[in-house]
């Protein structure tokens, strides 16, 4: 009887650990961004993006990244931090991108401020970009 209880306990523990591991593996980073070039209709790679959090009326840098060949950063929030409710911003450093493309731009940086809830939702911020204008919204 003791052997059967031990085996059952071990099986339940293994199953519980597998479920926790599977949940952690499927947990997405809470923040992603995407940049599309409206002038060319294509993804915009190589744009540096900074993530800041507002703390005591000051912006504190949490992370930076560069858009990949699809114009995306799929995991911008730092892996070692837990997302908490509050005010955040992503700053798209578009000036360097246009300088490398030998184009003028009116917006060397595009800050996008947003509020994050601590409910485990994923936040996606697309940027539709042209040299003299931009648009953004909450994506999915």
Automatic annotation (TrEMBL):
This is 5-hydroxyisourate hydrolase. Residues 1-24 form the signal peptide. Catalyzes the hydrolysis of 5-hydroxyisourate (HIU) to 2-oxo-4-hydroxy-4-carboxy-5-ureidoimidazoline (OHCU). Keywords: Hydrolase, Purine metabolism, Signal. GO terms for molecular function: hydroxyisourate hydrolase activity. The gene is uraH. It holds the Pfam family Transthyretin. It comes from the Bacteria. PROSITE patterns: TRANSTHYRETIN_2. Belongs to the transthyretin family. 5-hydroxyisourate hydrolase subfamily. InterPro entries: Hydroxyisourate_hydrolase, Transthyretin/HIU_hydrolase, Transthyretin/HIU_hydrolase_d, Transthyretin/HIU_hydrolase_sf, Transthyretin_CS. SUPFAM superfamilies: Transthyretin (synonym: prealbumin) (SSF49472). NCBIfam families: hdxy_isourate. It is an enzyme of class 3 (hydrolase). Its EC number is 3.5.2.17. It catalyses: 5-hydroxyisourate + H2O = 5-hydroxy-2-oxo-4-ureido-2,5-dihydro-1H-imidazole-5-carboxylate + H(+).
